[in-house]
Write a structure and sequence with these properties.
seven-stranded parallel beta sheet, Alpha/beta knot, alpha/beta, 2 domains, 60s Ribosomal Protein L30, Chain: A, four-stranded mixed beta sheet, about 260 residues
Length: about 260
Amino acid sequence: MITSSQNPLVKQIRRLHRAKGRQEQNLLLLEGTHLLETALEGNGSLETVCYSPQWQVKYSQLYEQVLTRSRRVECVSAEVLQQLATTVNPDGVIATIDRDFQNLRPIKSPKLGLILERIQDPGNLGTIIRSAVATGVDGIWTSEDSVEFDNPKVLRASAGAWFHLPKQSSPDLKKLIGDYQAQGIQVIATQMNAPKTYWETDFTRPSIILLGNEGAGLSPDLAKLADETVRIPLASGVESLNVAIAAALLLYEAQRQNSKK
């Protein structure tokens, strides 16, 4: 059992808490049983798994899978597991996996997609990914100044949906929007004073929904590229919605309309 925080493996995994460490090691950090199971279901080969004795007893069958699908498996003390995790109360297992396991395949002609500009909160991005998978979104793009897809908090907030959605970080959202518009895909942005509500918009056409930063919203340069702007009606005195909630509303309206086709 590894019991020392000075163990080289402990130091190596702790560096994955930061984007620089994940890039240098080309590894993702998976925290918790559910993410571990989802990665294994997706035929991922794990690099390292660190587990507590209690976890091994509780998930004996999963532990047997881990032994055959991991390069290194280590039992660690509760204190070490706490240091490896970014969560306050880890559930007993931490794993690492190659970053190339990310679902980064090209997104060619989406029927429904999401473009996100300057999203900063990992919980929001993870929740948006979860809603996107639930509503059949074909792909998601973020600006390069958004929170990283491989942030451990993004993975956790997605509740496993992270592994099932094509996703890309784009250096040039303007060009990306133009390229898809040239294919006949409409781009829809939310604006407070838009003339139409989001349920009055035709989502049966191939569409990409454009959403912006939690506080500042979309930049004017990006917003003006939209083919159509829509509003989400709010009660008097309410200034805005959380971006993850706004995304879910629009995505489920698109799903509702397309289910009637």
